[in-house]
Specification:
It is built from 13 helices and ten strands. The chain is α/β, with parallel strands linked by helices. The chain folds into two domains: 29-122 and 248-316, Bordetella uptake gene, domain 1 (D-Maltodextrin-Binding Protein, domain 2, 3-Layer(aba) Sandwich); 124-240, Periplasmic binding protein-like II (D-Maltodextrin-Binding Protein, domain 2), CATH 3.40.190. Strands 1, 2, 3, 4, 5, 6, 7, 8, 9 and 10 form a ten-stranded mixed beta sheet that branches. Strand 1 (30-34), helix 2 (40-57) and strand 2 (61-65) form a beta-alpha-beta unit. Helix 2 (40-57) crosses helix 11 and helix 4 (93-102) packs parallel to helix 13. It is globular, with a radius of gyration of 22 Å. 45% of the residues are buried.
Length: 322
């Protein structure tokens, strides 16, 4: 008859042979990598989701800001993290779609190296002009730019940012030339826009809304497929007839590829609960966002579509991050 000590030893060995994901999960804190500094869209979404998801999973979730080289450092760190269900990435159009076309030697592949957990919210961009610019619509801007190539300029938060890429694509599709003035962040761009030193600036709707509502800038158009409920009088790019272009910068959580299916299923189920919470949806709406509730199949299709579409647009428009 087997001794109690021997049975205990075999049981211990058997338990240790089980894969980590088959044991109680999660049994330690998770981390959410935000590939930008604190503040801004990435950080806002990451902290809100981490807080609510931690409560649903009954486990602490630590937000880790990993800025550097735009969004490259943090995103690459997440791509190379152990696929054990304990590291997640805040993914968006900029780091998972635009970067695929902007960098020749990108250290990660958005479609190969990540699995979506879920998309939570989408934000459109708002095109603004300095208050004293004698042009009152996107059509006026394009008409003036066609007659005066390079005379108008547009600000961005830096080379390769969403503000830069989307604006450059817009001017390319409209067939006009504006001079790009990159800044180190949106705050510096706003200072010069409000000071009348740059002509137009395209920024995420939640941030732009402050200036639009205050009347310190002229709101010209929105990048969304439909009008922004916060500014229903503002036309979309497509509605102006200038260019058939739309973009909403989606934000959500992604896991490293090869994360076990059982853990992905748990993460996806719990995140879906968080995204559907009325208070979470209301928080996003108040910030000018559009809550999202896509299936995983729809999410994968959206990410793939945006990677393909923006890689082509970036190359056609010869947009460079450097």
């Amino acid at each position: 008859m087997m001794s109690l000590a021997r049975r205990s030893l075999l049981a211990l060995l058997g338990a240790s042979a089980l894969p980590a994901w088959s044991q109680a999960y999660p049994n330690k804190p998770l981390r959410v990598i935000v590939p930008q500094p604190p503040g801004g869209g990435f950080d806002f979404v990451g902290r809100l989701l981490a807080d609510r998801l931690g409560k649903v999973m009954n486990q602490a979730i630590v937000v880790e800001n990993r800025p550097g080289s735009g969004t490259l450092v943090g995103t690459d760190a997440a791509a190379k993290a152990a696929p054990d269900g304990y590291t997640l990435l805040v993914g968006s159009v900029s780091n998972l779609a635009l970067n695929m076309g902007l960098y020749r030697n990108l250290p990660y592949d958005s479609l190969r190296d990540f699995e979506p957990v879920g998309l939570a919210v989408g934000y459109s961009y708002t095109l603004m002009a300095r208050k004293d610019l004698p042009l009152n619509s996107l059509k006026d801007v394009v008409a003036f730019a066609k007659a005066n190539p390079g005379k108008l300029n547009y600000a961005s938060a830096g080379n390769g940012t969403g503000q830069h890429v989307l604006a450059a694509a817009l001017w390319h599709l409209a067939g006009v030339k504006l001079t790009h003035v990159p800044y180190r962040g949106a705050q510096a761009a706003y200072q010069d826009l409000l000071g009348g030193r740059v002509d137009v600036f395209l920024d995420l709707a939640p941030t732009a809304r402050v200036q639009v509502d205050a009347g310190t800038v002229k709101a010209l158009a929105t990048s969304g497929a439909s009008r922004n409920p916060m500014h229903p009088e503002m036309p979309t790019f497509t509605e102006t007839g200038v260019a058939a272009l739309d973009l909403e910068s989606w934000f959500g959580l992604f896991a490293p590829a090869k994360t076990p299916p059982e853990l992905l299923e748990r993460l996806r189920t719990d995140l879906a609960r968080v995204i559907a919470m009325p208070e979470v949806m209301e928080t996003f709406r108040k910030a000018g966002g559009k809550p999202m509730g896509l299936s995983i199949a729809e999410t994968k299709a959206l990410v793939q579509r945006d990677v393909q579409r923006w890689t082509k647009l970036i190359k056609d428009a010869d947009i460079n991050a450097e």
